[in-house]
Every structure is written in C-alpha cells, then in structure tokens.
Amino acid sequence: MNERLRLLFAEAIDMKFEHLQNSEMSIEIAYIAPLCEENKINDFIIVPFTKDAYPFQSQLDTNPEYRQVEDIAKWQELLLRGHVLIQANQIIYAFDASRIISIENPQTQVESAIQGPQLALSEDLNISLNLIRSMYPSPDLSVEEHTIGSLSKTPILALFDQRRVDPSVLDTVRDKLTSINVEMLHAAGELEKLLVGKRKHLFPTLLITERPDRISKAISKGKVVILLKGNMFAIILPATFFDFMHAMEDDYDAYWMTRFLIFLRYTSIVLTITLPALYISVVSYNPEVFRVQLAFSIAGSRSGVPYPSFVEVFIMLFMIETLIEASIRLPRYIGSTATTVGGLILGQAAQQAGLVSSIMIIVTSVVAISNFVIPVNSLSFAIRFLKYPLIAVSIFFGITGVAVGLFVYITYLCNLRSFGKPYMRIFGKLRPLEGDIGQVNVE
Amino acid sequence: MNRYVFYNFIMVSFINLLLFVPHILIEARFNGAVSSMIVGTVIGTILVYMYTSAMARYPGKGLPEILKQHFPQWLVSICMFCSAVMWWFATSIVVVAYAILINRFFNPDANSIIILSMLIIACGYAATRSTLSVMFVLEIGLIVNAPVIIFILFKAVRSTQLNFDSIRVVANYVTAMPTLSAVAAASFIFTGYINLSLFNRLLPPNFRFKFRWVYPVFGITIMLITFFVPIGFHGTEAVNQYTYIWSVTADSLIMQYGFIERVLFLFLIVFLNLTLVYTMCGWHQAMEFIKCCFRNYKPEIDSPKTPVANYVIVGIFAMLTMLYLVLTNEKINMFITSYWLVARMFVEFIIVLTVFVLSRRRPKTT
Amino acid sequence: MNVIIRICLAIIMVCMLGACGFKDIDKRFFVVALGIDQSENEKKPYRITLQLAIPSPKIEPGASKTQIETIDAPSIAEGVRMLKAYVDKEIDFGHCKIFIIGEKVANSDYQGALEWMTRRRDIQSVANIAIGKPDAESLLKVKPLSERYPGNTLFLSFGADGTESSYTYVESLSDFSRRASEEGLDPLMPIIKKDNQESFIINKTALLDKKRVKLVLNPSEAQLYNQLANDFTKSSMHGMFEGLDLVVAITEIHSKFRIGKQNGEDTITMDVKMKVVFEEAPKDLYSAQWRSVEEDLNKEYAKSCVKLLRKIQKAGVDPIGFGLRYRATHPGSDAFKKWESLYPTIKFVVRANIIIEGTGLIK
C-alpha cells in the first residue's frame, strides 16, 4: 500500500508512512500528519498494536471505527479527509482521526440577543448538528448530506422536518444542490448566490443566520436549513421579507414592547429609504409642503450653501457611507474613533463651512441610524442601496417620483419568489391555507 | 379569501374621485343627480349580486375560460379584444388625468408627457408581473393607502366648514328624473366586482362569497361622501366652478397639528398610489384578455418567468396611452370619460347577464 | 439588445433633465402676504403689494426681515408677473396665507380679485382673507416687534395655534369663495387696522354682498356675531344685574335657528344656549338667586342679538345663511326668489338660555 501511496503523494512531505511490527503481525499505516490528531493515532493504533494485550486483528474486525476500504480509488480522498489507512493482512482499513480546527462554541456576534441562547453555530458540522438536534429533539428531523465543489469537496447538510417540510421546496432544493457546479465553496453567502441563481439580485431571498434558535424555529415551520462545513452560518430557505425584519427577541420579550419595536423597525426602513429623496423633492420642488416656519428655517440654513440640494445630499451620503464602511472594516478599537471623528467633527465642520445645511446633517444621521435597526445584516445592506435610485428619481420628479419609486419597489418585492414562495405578502402564511388564492392550478 | 374581492371593490370605489364621477354628478346636481344615485345604487347592487353568484359557480376560471366553454374561439377572441379595450381605456383615462393633475399641483413647470411616461413605465412594469403578484401589490397598496383616504374623508365629513344646509338644498332635488350619464357615473362606484372577470382565476375551489352586504353599504357611503361633501364645502353654486373638485376640497382642509399642514398633499400622494395600483390592475387584466384571444394560450397565474408577450402588449398599451395624452386635453378627456362611463355600464350589463345566464344553464357540479 | 435599451434609457434621462421644475428653496422668494389695492391710475386700476420673506438662519424675536414690492397693473395676474422682474428669485405663492384686500377694492368690487385667487393653483384654499384699512400696502409695511418669522404675526393672528380672539372673525379663501356665489349665504371678512405702534388690530368685521361691503360691525357686534354664527366660546359677555355691572366668560355656547311662522308672521327663531362663568361680578352674587340673574342676562342678550340681526337685515345681507336654510327646507327652484321678498320684513325672535356654572374662584 505504502509504495502506491508514495507515488500518489510524491511531493507531499507531510505524508507519513509507518511500518509497524509486533509479535503477531505487521501493519502499514499512512496518514497526512497535519490533518490528523496524533493522540488519536497513538491511542487507537500505535499503543494497542505495540502493547499487544489484545489481538489487533480482532480489534480491527470488531470495532466499527475501523472501516474496511475496498475501493482503491477512495484512498486519496480518505487521506485528505484526515483518515488513517491501515493495511493488515492485505486488507485496508480506514480510521477517522481527523482534527478540525474550529472555534469552540462561539458566542453569537452578528445577531446578538440580550435574553436568548448565546451560543452560535460552530464551524464544525458535528457541533452545529449537536446544537440543533438538542434544540429540536424530534425523530422527524432528517439530515441529508451533499458535497459541493469539485476541488473543495465541501460537505453540506440539509436539515428539515420530514413531516412538516413543503415537498415542492424540498424538491427544488435537492435539484439545485445536485446541479451546482463550482470548484470552490467556502462561505454561506457563496452558496446563497449559487442557490438563488440570479446573476443580479437586490434583496436576499435566503436567510443566513448563526442562531440555533432561529434555525430550530425555522425547521418547525417547515423550512429547510443548510449547514456548511467550516462556516458558522446556516442558510434558511425559503425566507420572506418579514423573516428578515424579525429579531429573535421579538418572541422572547413582552408583547407590547415588541410590537412597538416592530413598528419602529418598519418606520425606520421607510425613513432610511425615503428621507434623502424627500429632502431633495421638498426643498427643490414643493417647499409648500412644510409648515411655513420650517420652510423659512430650512431656506435660512440653506442660504449659504452654493450647491443644489442633490449635490448636498450626495456629499453627506458619501461621507456617511464611507464612515460606515470604514468602521466595519477597521479593528474594533479604531472603529469607534473613526465614527467619532467622522460623525461629530466632519458634520459640524461641513455645516460651518457652508457646504451643507444643518437640516441635511439631521437627515443624514437619521438615515444612517435607522438603517442599523434592521435585525438581519443582509437585508440591512440591501436597504442601504435602495435610497440611491429614489434620490435619482426625486431629482427629476420630486415627490411624485418618490411615490412612484416606492410603488416600483413594492412591486419588485411582491414579484420576488423565494423557492416558489411569495417573498412579500401581508397576512399570508408561508404554507398557503386552505382556500387561499392561487391554488387552482395545483389541482 | 374574500378580502381580495373586497380590495378590488374598495379600490374602484375610491378611484371614482379621480375619474370625473363627482364632476359629472355635481354638474347634474339640480337635474337628477340624487335620483340617479339611487338608481345607480340599485343597478350596482344587483350587478354585484348577480356577478358574484355567477362567478362562484366557476371556481378558478376567469371570464375568458368561461366563454371558451360555451362559445367558439373567434367569438371569444372578439369579446376579449373588446373587453381588453374597455379595461385599457378605464385605466388610461385615470392615469392621463392624474398626469395632468400632477402637472397642475406638484410640478407646474414639468412637461406632462414626461410625467406620464414615468407613471406608465412604473405601471407597465407592475402590470407585466404575474397575476398573483399583482394581487399582492394591490393588497399592500390598499392597506397602506386606504386608511389615509378614510382619514381624509372622515376629516372632511367632520369639518366645521361643511354646510349641511347646502347639502339639504341639493338633496331636495331628489324628485328630478335621473339622467343616463349620471346613472352611469353613480353606478361606476359599484363596479369593482367586474375585476372578478380575471381575478376569479385565483379564487380556490369551494370558494364562497361572504359578507356581500358590505359592497352596497360601502359603495353608498363612498358615493354620498363623493357627492355631498364638495357641495357642503363649496356651496351649491361655487361647487360647479372647479375642474378638480376633490383636490380643491382637500385643499380646504387643514391639519392644524400634522407634520404636513395641507391635506391636499396627503390627498394627492395617496391618490397617486391608488392610481398606480388601479392602472396596474387594469392593464394587467387587459393584457391577460388580449393573450386569451389566441387559441393556444394557457392561463397561468404565477409564472416564474415573465413571458415576452407581456412586455409587448403592455408596451403597446403604454404607447397608446401616450398618444391619448397628446391627442386630448382636459376638456376632451372629461367629455370622453362621460361617454365612456355610459358605454362601460352597458358592456357590464352584457357581461354580467351573459355569465349569469350561462351559470344558470349549467347544472350545478358539486 | 441590452446596449440599445441602455442607450435609450440614457437618452430619456437626459431629456427629463431639461423638463423638470427643479428650483431650490433658497432660490425662491416666498410671498407671505399679498395686498390688492385700488390705484389712482385709471389704466392700471390694481396696486399689487407683495410681502416677500427674507429667510435668515437666525431665529429670534424681531429678526424677521421682509421685502415689500409694489406695482400698479391693469390686472392682478399681470402685476404679479411684472413683479418678477423686480426681484432676483422665483416668486412662490406656496406659503402665502394672508390676502389683504384694500378697503377701496372691497367697497367697489372684489370679484375680480377673488377669481384670480381661486384660479391659481398654488394659492392655498385655506389661506386667510381680510380687508385692510385704510389700504393693504400700508398694512404690509408694518413690522411687528415680536415677529420671529416673516409674516408670522398675521399667520398667528388668524390661525388657531396662535391667539384666538373673540373679536376676530377668521375667513378662509374657500369659505369666502363659497359665500361669494352661494344663494342665501353672504360673505364677510375681518378688517385689519394699523394702530399707532407697529402692530395690528383685528376687531371689526365687514359684511358684504356678492360685490361689495355693505355693513361694518363694530367690535362688540363682531364678537356677538362670532358667538351667534360660529359658537365661539373663548369670549365674554357684558350684562347688568340690579344696576351692577357683570361680565361673564362663555364656556360653552350652542345656537340654532328655525324659520317658520309665529302668530301668522314669518319669523326666524334663534335659540342660544350657553354656559357661563363670572369674570366680574358684585361680591355677594354667590348668595343671590342665580335664576333671576340668568333671566336678566337672557333678556339683555336677546335684546342685543335682535338688534344685531335687525341691523344685518336692514343692510340687505345674510351672512348667517338664513336664506340657505330657507332653500333647504322649502324645495323648489323658486324658493330663493320667495325668500328674497320675505327677508326684508321677517321678524326675529331670540331665545337665550344662559346657565351660570359658577362665580369663578371667589364667592
């Protein structure tokens, strides 16, 4: 065996080949050292073999950890996955000694909840599965394994409740998973793009999350969850717009407070999308919309600004967007400094320099802050983009343009489907009720 | 899913404020508007009941499918083409009127053709979506806008400026004989049911129409407000001098403590949304009817990909609408509308009666 | 294909650029008040005065700055258009909430001015309209000391969020234009006067027919009118009880009227119900019989009301809308003709019903 492997892995110096012999028999073992846990190899192979207290051959035959490998073509793959190959009496056995480096039980970071499970998914599939299984202890929970990536060979698990899952969704997911053809796959976001399939999409139609409670809830609602090895995020599908607006804490906290929070979230979405466009359209087209006092104070504060309103808006939005980008990318300690410098000092200075009006500073900060209220990051990013087309329309058409633009957005959202399910629909359940509209073609 | 039927009804009864209906009624206030409204209510209610009970026997089938069951294809094609023209016209009048209205009140310096082109691009995009999506947009549009419209109407009714003596003066003319155009205008408020012609496709099997009494009640309320509130605001004489009677009425209101002080702007924005939704629905139906003219067309309610035919048909609609704006002006539009309303009433008679008779002839299949 | 679409879109965008009414707020001159006077010039009968706001970033009492532009023109529309040549920014009527019609115009014919105002799309129907005495121009030149925003004093005087004076009748443009054409309902307007200092007095009301001013109510009549026609509560009433002066504040007032026959004569019966609290009264009133005080007040109030109504009747105008009520209760297209012959001789009966709620904080 070792001769053959030496040929296959000629250039790999981290490949280990050993020849062991005790009183009874001799074996050959081969493994890739960095991928394996030396302890495990010692405990399960070398020590029992050399100690020779119990016949090693019967150990190989009885313990299911040692799997017999018949197909020579599989050797390579097994070795690369961290297995040890053992040759004893001309039979090849594989023993899983893989060492996975991952963060041990990380805390939730991206979607944190004050009261609620603090553990996030792990990069190790087994630990993640452990978390989910323990939160969803039901025999109906099915796990399917797929492998994606001709080079990366990333293992993927699809989880669903086999009784509750929507069969049409499951079929499309299986279809998509088998038909994906890429070389490398490392991140959940990458898989999301591959699953959606559209080259240009604006809104996320799959929910990426790290929270096991969100996942178990989604499974109980009949959704499919996809886990990815080496990634602490899972994909939930199908997802609706309202799932993205839903923070897990909404289910944990007091009723009225959470209703208020939800209301707040939708209001701030509307604000963050429309406010800059409305500023332009009101200032440059219909100043009579304001109260007269407000109109005069805006006119007063704008009187020193040499540029038209939309240039003013672009200046401020450029500043705030770069600030947000910078503070995300920078290390955490410098990040807060950047915001302070940018937010406080630049805003003040820009206004005093007569580059922008003081109302515009308020508008910009409202836009930036209300954008952060959205609980799921991917939607927050999509929403961040939405204001720019509206600004463009408002430059030409004023308030009418903004209203028409919003209408187009809503139409786009209503037209989106997430795995065949309507993406935005008020009062609609994900699984259509008996007597819902649009069921006729099904019969 | 009765609510989707309601949405159509509510939308059409609200949109009447823009479709010169109050204008036509108010013009005839001393010679037959009030009695026409009574007649219109009766006609509208009867048609609602007839059409809903007829459609309930054809679950999941739109008007074209029903006709195809009973008539040869060439006849269906002609009928469908005619109804497509009707539906296209209904919406184009509104969207053209609204483009002019925006030009008057929002952007007096802008060109109304450019405003219209923006509106029809948005509507055209929306109309080419699948029938199911159109319904979802309609739902959201109404849920967002209807409360504001009701608020404005309520505010108008509760306003101290409303003079009930003027309303009584006009109401006293109830004895005047109804006129055809006024009856047609009044019955338009009830005409939302006719959208079932297409949207019946979406209704599931074993569907039952519930709360049908709401339709006449709601229609009558809206009609009374539509007609009498402007009279109460502007008096029996001055009310006739305004071209955009409801915009002026909304402008007479003030929200003392609102963020926007003038109700007019709220009114215009809300009705802009409603116009867009209405135009989307109308064009979508007209588009589907045109597609049904072809023999081998299979109706689809939620196709994952938008067929190219959609874009072609709606593109033609958009071009014709632009042409309509170029060829007409406010006065001609108003004039055509009053005739169109009459024509619409008779076409609806024919459609409803045909479907009703067909549904009775067929033995009940349960 | 895609490229063609993109090019088309770009062309459309460029076309749109040329055709929009983009104008920044600081490039607009807001008219806060408009005055219409009669000039001496025969050919140019209208004198238009615009009060233009100069916005300033500072907001403090007295910081308001305005610019006054005046022109004589053959018509209002032409005058406004010509005035554009006098200023550097676009004139915007969007915030014009006060229209002052000079006394001379109001005394000759106001219909021309009214028509211009209702026809223009950017003039709010909720704007207030008033008569300026002696003329609109001099009123607009007044600079009140406390004013923070240009034109704010007049906005607040008429709007409900500022002062609510019982002597000021507030007339909106839409109401005025209704009254100007309605049969059986005549227009009326407050009169703004300038006092010796830099401020306004608005305590008289002019009653007009469909063309010009017919009668001017003095302040106490104006207040009484507001009580009768508008149920204006924040007002007071003067009365006598056993030779002593009484002043009461009205907390609630409801008035309604009926047209009918009484003893064979056509009569308008007015019922006025009000609840009052004493503001000024003799010391021992608390222990006296309130019933008799109420009756005295009733009598006196009824008397002054009938006097006012007679005066209005004699002037031949009908601002309360008796004629409209007559039309409403008497169907038929000739009702108004009948009413016109009836009105000059009709009798008024006012039945006041005053309820005393208390004597204020002291007995």
Provide structural commentary.
The complex is a heterotrimer of chains A (443), B (366) and C (363). Chain A has 443 residues and is of the alpha+beta class. Chain A has three domains: 2-96, no CATH class; 125-239, no CATH class; 253-422, no CATH class. Helix content of chain A is 49%, strand content 14%. Chain A has helices at residues 2-8, 38-51, 56-62, 75-80, 125-135, 167-179, 188-196, 212-220, 241-244, 255-284, 292-302, 309-329, 332-352, 358-371, 377-397, 399-415, and strands spanning 15-21, 26-32, 66-69, 83-88, 91-96, 141-148, 154-161, 207-209, 224-228, 234-237, 417-418, 421-422. Chain A has a five-stranded antiparallel β-sheet with strand order 1-2-4-5-3, with helices on both faces. Chain B has 15 helices and no strands. Chain B has 366 residues and is mainly α. The two termini of chain B are 20 Å apart. Helix content of chain B is 72%, strand content 0%. Chain C folds into two domains: 24-217; 231-358, GMP Synthetase, Chain A, domain 3. The longest helix of chain C is centred in the last third of the chain and has 26 residues, at 290-315. The A-B interface holds A 285-286, 288-291, 393, 396-401, 403-404, 407-408, 410-411, 414-415, 417, 420, 422, 424-428, 434-441, 443 and B 1, 4, 59-60, 102, 106-107, 110, 115, 118-119, 122, 125-126, 129-133, 135-137, 139-141, 143, 201-207, 260-262, 265, 269, 272-273, 276-277, 280, 300-302, 304.
